[in-house]
Specification:
Helices cover 4% and strands 52% of the residues. An eight-stranded antiparallel β-barrel has the order 1-2-3-4-5-6-7-8. It is mainly beta. It contains one helix and eight strands; from the N terminus they run H-E-E-E-E-E-E-E-E. The N and C termini lie far apart (38 Å).
């Protein structure tokens, strides 16, 4: 190994404390925004009928998420009580059948 984290590790990065398990689909109450957080540290966000409206990478520190869009735009989010607060959005984990 070269001492670097694998891509999967970046989704679970921690700097002390516990790390939130964030991988999965997160959706606004109206279903208009769907943010898929992939286990490899990438995300893909759909808005309305626009698939992959935003894509990029993310890292997790405790319950805090730092996003870097593929264009270089940055954003943050926090998970509190099972809810993802991403900038002005409120997203809930989509339940799997």
């Amino acid at each position: 190994m070269n001492g670097q984290n694998s891509p999967a590790d970046s989704a679970r990065e921690t700097r002390g404390g516990t790390t939130a398990d964030v991988a999965g689909m997160w959706v606004t109450a109206d279903g208009n925004i769907r943010q898929e957080l992939l286990a490899d540290g990438r995300y893909d966000e759909a808005r309305g009928t626009r698939r992959s409206a935003y894509t990029g990478r993310y890292t997790v520190t405790g319950n805090h998420i730092d996003y870097v869009d593929d264009t270089g735009f940055t954003a943050t989010g926090d998970i509190r009580d099972g809810v993802l607060y991403h900038e002005h959005l409120v997203l809930h984990r989509e339940e799997r059948d």
